[in-house]
Amino acid sequence: MPTLALNDDLVLPVPQALAWKTLHDLTLLADSLPEGTRFQAGDAPGAFLLSLPGFEGRVLQLDLDAPSRLHLSFEGRGPRTGAVTGQAQLRLESLGDDRALLHVALVIQAEGATPSKVAGLQALRARLAAFAAAVERRHPSGRPLPVKAPPKPWPQRLVDWYLGWFAAIFNGTLYPAPKPRPPRTRPRR
Protein backbone atom coordinates (compact mmCIF):
# COMPACT_ATOMS: atom_id res chain seq x y z
CA MET A 1 0.00 0.00 0.00
CA PRO A 2 1.48 3.37 -0.96
CA THR A 3 1.70 5.72 2.02
CA LEU A 4 1.67 9.50 1.97
CA ALA A 5 2.65 11.50 5.08
CA LEU A 6 2.42 15.25 5.58
CA ASN A 7 3.60 17.36 8.51
CA ASP A 8 2.90 21.04 7.98
CA ASP A 9 2.09 24.25 9.81
CA LEU A 10 -0.49 26.82 8.78
CA VAL A 11 -1.03 30.31 10.20
CA LEU A 12 -4.73 31.15 10.42
CA PRO A 13 -5.73 34.84 10.66
CA VAL A 14 -8.20 34.25 13.51
CA PRO A 15 -7.89 33.69 17.28
CA GLN A 16 -7.54 30.13 18.56
CA ALA A 17 -11.18 29.81 19.72
CA LEU A 18 -12.48 30.89 16.31
CA ALA A 19 -9.96 28.64 14.54
CA TRP A 20 -11.32 25.74 16.59
CA LYS A 21 -14.86 26.56 15.41
CA THR A 22 -13.70 26.70 11.77
CA LEU A 23 -12.30 23.17 12.07
CA HIS A 24 -15.86 22.01 12.89
CA ASP A 25 -17.69 24.20 10.35
CA LEU A 26 -18.72 21.75 7.63
CA THR A 27 -19.72 24.43 5.11
CA LEU A 28 -16.34 26.15 5.45
CA LEU A 29 -14.53 22.81 5.11
CA ALA A 30 -16.57 22.00 1.99
CA ASP A 31 -15.63 25.42 0.54
CA SER A 32 -11.96 24.52 0.84
CA LEU A 33 -12.35 21.18 -0.96
CA PRO A 34 -12.94 20.62 -4.70
CA GLU A 35 -16.25 21.58 -6.32
CA GLY A 36 -18.99 19.02 -5.68
CA THR A 37 -17.80 18.08 -2.17
CA ARG A 38 -20.52 17.24 0.36
CA PHE A 39 -20.41 16.61 4.10
CA GLN A 40 -23.24 14.90 5.95
CA ALA A 41 -23.67 13.99 9.59
CA GLY A 42 -22.88 10.32 10.16
CA ASP A 43 -24.55 7.58 12.14
CA ALA A 44 -22.50 8.20 15.31
CA PRO A 45 -21.60 11.41 17.17
CA GLY A 46 -18.40 12.83 15.69
CA ALA A 47 -18.82 10.87 12.44
CA PHE A 48 -19.29 12.47 9.03
CA LEU A 49 -19.84 11.15 5.53
CA LEU A 50 -17.61 12.77 2.92
CA SER A 51 -18.36 12.78 -0.81
CA LEU A 52 -15.69 14.08 -3.17
CA PRO A 53 -15.70 13.72 -6.95
CA GLY A 54 -14.49 10.14 -7.38
CA PHE A 55 -14.34 9.33 -3.66
CA GLU A 56 -16.82 8.31 -0.95
CA GLY A 57 -15.69 8.02 2.65
CA ARG A 58 -16.35 8.33 6.36
CA VAL A 59 -14.53 10.63 8.81
CA LEU A 60 -14.57 9.82 12.53
CA GLN A 61 -13.40 11.93 15.47
CA LEU A 62 -11.23 9.74 17.67
CA ASP A 63 -9.94 12.17 20.23
CA LEU A 64 -10.84 15.72 21.12
CA ASP A 65 -9.21 18.21 23.48
CA ALA A 66 -11.00 21.52 22.86
CA PRO A 67 -9.74 24.02 21.76
CA SER A 68 -6.25 22.70 21.09
CA ARG A 69 -6.19 19.14 19.71
CA LEU A 70 -8.24 17.01 17.34
CA HIS A 71 -7.53 13.47 16.11
CA LEU A 72 -9.43 12.16 13.07
CA SER A 73 -9.59 8.82 11.31
CA PHE A 74 -10.97 8.35 7.83
CA GLU A 75 -11.63 5.54 5.40
CA GLY A 76 -13.21 5.39 2.02
CA ARG A 77 -13.07 4.09 -1.51
CA GLY A 78 -12.45 5.62 -4.90
CA PRO A 79 -12.35 4.09 -8.39
CA ARG A 80 -8.69 5.00 -9.00
CA THR A 81 -7.31 4.69 -5.47
CA GLY A 82 -9.28 1.69 -4.22
CA ALA A 83 -9.60 1.52 -0.43
CA VAL A 84 -8.10 4.52 1.37
CA THR A 85 -7.42 4.79 5.11
CA GLY A 86 -5.74 7.50 7.08
CA GLN A 87 -5.41 9.52 10.21
CA ALA A 88 -4.96 13.22 10.88
CA GLN A 89 -3.84 15.00 14.01
CA LEU A 90 -4.59 18.71 14.19
CA ARG A 91 -3.14 20.88 16.94
CA LEU A 92 -3.89 24.57 17.48
CA GLU A 93 -1.65 27.08 19.24
CA SER A 94 -2.39 30.71 19.92
CA LEU A 95 -0.10 33.27 18.30
CA GLY A 96 -1.66 36.21 20.10
CA ASP A 97 -5.10 37.76 20.04
CA ASP A 98 -5.65 37.48 16.29
CA ARG A 99 -3.60 34.55 14.97
CA ALA A 100 -3.53 30.79 15.49
CA LEU A 101 -0.99 28.22 14.35
CA LEU A 102 -2.42 24.95 13.04
CA HIS A 103 -0.06 21.96 13.11
CA VAL A 104 -1.18 19.20 10.74
CA ALA A 105 0.12 15.62 10.80
CA LEU A 106 -1.55 13.46 8.16
CA VAL A 107 -0.91 9.87 7.05
CA ILE A 108 -2.83 8.34 4.12
CA GLN A 109 -2.60 4.81 2.74
CA ALA A 110 -4.19 3.89 -0.57
CA GLU A 111 -4.76 0.41 -1.94
CA GLY A 112 -4.59 1.23 -5.64
CA ALA A 113 -2.68 3.51 -7.94
CA THR A 114 -1.87 6.95 -6.60
CA PRO A 115 0.00 9.89 -8.07
CA SER A 116 3.63 10.35 -7.13
CA LYS A 117 4.41 11.34 -3.56
CA VAL A 118 5.52 14.78 -4.70
CA ALA A 119 2.22 15.36 -6.54
CA GLY A 120 0.26 14.01 -3.57
CA LEU A 121 2.06 16.31 -1.12
CA GLN A 122 1.51 19.28 -3.43
CA ALA A 123 -2.20 18.46 -3.60
CA LEU A 124 -2.44 18.19 0.21
CA ARG A 125 -0.59 21.49 0.68
CA ALA A 126 -2.94 23.08 -1.87
CA ARG A 127 -5.92 21.85 0.21
CA LEU A 128 -4.38 23.41 3.34
CA ALA A 129 -3.84 26.71 1.49
CA ALA A 130 -7.45 26.55 0.27
CA PHE A 131 -8.60 26.02 3.87
CA ALA A 132 -6.61 29.08 5.03
CA ALA A 133 -8.09 31.11 2.14
CA ALA A 134 -11.62 29.97 3.08
CA VAL A 135 -11.03 31.01 6.69
CA GLU A 136 -9.71 34.39 5.49
CA ARG A 137 -12.78 34.90 3.27
CA ARG A 138 -15.19 33.98 6.06
CA HIS A 139 -13.36 35.93 8.80
CA PRO A 140 -11.37 38.74 7.14
CA SER A 141 -8.54 40.27 9.14
CA GLY A 142 -7.09 43.74 8.66
CA ARG A 143 -3.61 42.67 9.76
CA PRO A 144 -0.97 41.63 7.25
CA LEU A 145 0.18 38.02 7.22
CA PRO A 146 3.57 37.35 8.81
CA VAL A 147 6.50 37.32 6.41
CA LYS A 148 9.13 34.59 6.55
CA ALA A 149 12.62 35.80 7.32
CA PRO A 150 14.95 35.65 4.32
CA PRO A 151 17.52 32.84 4.44
CA LYS A 152 20.92 33.68 5.87
CA PRO A 153 23.79 34.11 3.40
CA TRP A 154 25.68 30.88 2.76
CA PRO A 155 28.86 31.92 4.68
CA GLN A 156 26.76 32.53 7.81
CA ARG A 157 24.97 29.18 7.37
CA LEU A 158 28.37 27.46 7.03
CA VAL A 159 29.66 29.10 10.24
CA ASP A 160 26.44 28.19 12.08
CA TRP A 161 26.72 24.57 10.92
CA TYR A 162 30.40 24.37 11.95
CA LEU A 163 29.76 25.84 15.40
CA GLY A 164 26.83 23.47 15.92
CA TRP A 165 28.93 20.49 14.84
CA PHE A 166 31.83 21.56 17.08
CA ALA A 167 29.50 22.01 20.07
CA ALA A 168 27.90 18.61 19.41
CA ILE A 169 31.29 16.92 19.69
CA PHE A 170 31.91 18.35 23.15
CA ASN A 171 28.41 18.09 24.62
CA GLY A 172 28.09 14.42 23.66
CA THR A 173 25.21 14.63 21.19
CA LEU A 174 27.28 13.84 18.10
CA TYR A 175 29.19 10.94 19.59
CA PRO A 176 27.36 9.87 22.76
CA ALA A 177 29.24 7.94 25.41
CA PRO A 178 28.89 4.19 25.02
CA LYS A 179 26.37 2.45 27.24
CA PRO A 180 27.89 0.24 29.92
CA ARG A 181 27.56 -3.43 29.23
CA PRO A 182 26.66 -5.91 31.93
CA PRO A 183 29.56 -8.12 32.94
CA ARG A 184 29.64 -11.41 31.09
CA THR A 185 29.80 -14.55 33.12
CA ARG A 186 32.10 -17.25 31.94
CA PRO A 187 30.72 -20.76 31.77
CA ARG A 188 32.33 -23.15 34.21
CA ARG A 189 34.23 -26.05 32.79
Distance between the termini: 54 Å
Please summarize the sheet with the most strands. Answer: 7 strands, antiparallel
Helix content range:
25-40%
**Overall 3D shape:** extended
Mean pLDDT: 82
Poorly predicted segments: none
Number of strands: 7
Written overview of the protein:
The chain has 189 residues and is of the alpha+beta class. The protein is 29% helix and 34% strand. It contains four helices and seven strands, in the order βααββββββαα. The protein has a seven-stranded antiparallel beta sheet. A hairpin with a 5-residue loop joins strand 2 and strand 3. The longest helix is centred in the C-terminal third of the chain and has 22 residues. It starts with a strand and ends in an 18-residue tail after the last helix. The relative contact order is 0.18. The mean pLDDT is 82.
Task: Describe the secondary-structure layout.
Blueprint: E1 3-12, H1 16-23, H2 26-31, E2 38-41, E3 47-52, E4 55-65, E5 69-78, E6 82-94, E7 100-110, H3 117-138, H4 154-171
Antiparallel strand pairs: 1-7, 2-3, 3-4, 4-5, 5-6, 6-7
State the main characteristics:
extended; 189 residues; 7 strands; 7-stranded antiparallel beta sheet; 4 helices; single chain; alpha+beta
Short description:
The protein has helices spanning 16-23, 26-31, 117-138, 154-171; strands spanning 3-12, 38-41, 47-52, 55-65, 69-78, 82-94, 100-110.
